[in-house]
Please model this.
Amino acid sequence: MIPPISVETNTFRYTLDALLVRSDDLRRVAATVANAAQYVGISARLNSEPERLVLKIEIEHAAKDIADVHADLEGVIATIEPSEWARASLVTGGPWPETRGVSEWVVNYAPWQSVAARWVPVTMTRRIDNANAPQDFLERFARIPTGSERVRIDRFDTATGPRFEVYLAGTNFAAGPDNPWWVGANTELLASGASRSMSAAESALNHAGVTGTTPIVLTGHSQGGAIALALANSGRYAVEAVFTAGTPAGLVESPANVPIVHVVHPEDPVPALGGVIRGTAGTTWIVHTEPRSTGTDAHLASNYQESLRRLDGLRDPRLMALENRLQIDGPGTAMWFRATLAGD
Model:
């Protein structure tokens, strides 16, 4: 099992150079060990030595283990710099193409931008009292809503005033342009830094009583994470931290002076759709799926839930310090929101 790997955004280039050197070393070692196994096997057959045949099998296993580590490292490299996909994805099965040029072409010619709503009214579907405050990223991610409700907001009244935890769901791939969270909202974010889904989220924030001075923490999966980054970057809210998982973070500029934690699977193609992360803020945790998943399976919220459980188990001092700083005492109120386009 490969442990989670932390990479500071502003050290991506240095880290990538170091990993490329190590990856080439591992490739050469794996090839050398595999060749050694062949020579031992030839010698064993020529001299009828069963002990050498056993040694050959053991060396072959060692060569395979080294090759597997090399393949995993290639997946990490592809995560840090998607333009490395051509070499790395063939080895790992991690589909990380550099899609920035394609995304820009879609932005220039896509028909849906003209119908994007600037403000999307929301319908509050239910309210639950006495919601406990989340303790860590894992608990926050577990509160991201599913189904027709795409936004959950928890309010906590403290001695210094109200504080909010906001949870944003990802793209609804089955939805059409009449749904704010359809796939086209991602290209709206890339084109202008705003989208109908972001507008729906802001409408929910307004409905919940969030103002420009009330502290909020934003957590999102996939497109929800990109919306969280865009909201933080807008300067309209007092954002204390942003947590994302499986997010195409390069769709929007990363806000400065806001703690940001990204978690990505190197086997997940969705984060690469935003291209390289823009800005230098934040830390990205690269966590391989266990058991190994590829493609859209690696993007599933359930797989990220398990990865966050593994990350939480590391007890990383930086994450723990951030989570301790965000702690809230006492019960709160949880609200779910379903968005509809203007006129619906």
In short: The longest helix spans residues 12-47. Residues 7 and 284 are 5 Å apart (CA to CA). The chain has two domains: 10-92, 100-339. The first strand starts at residue 5 and ends at 8.
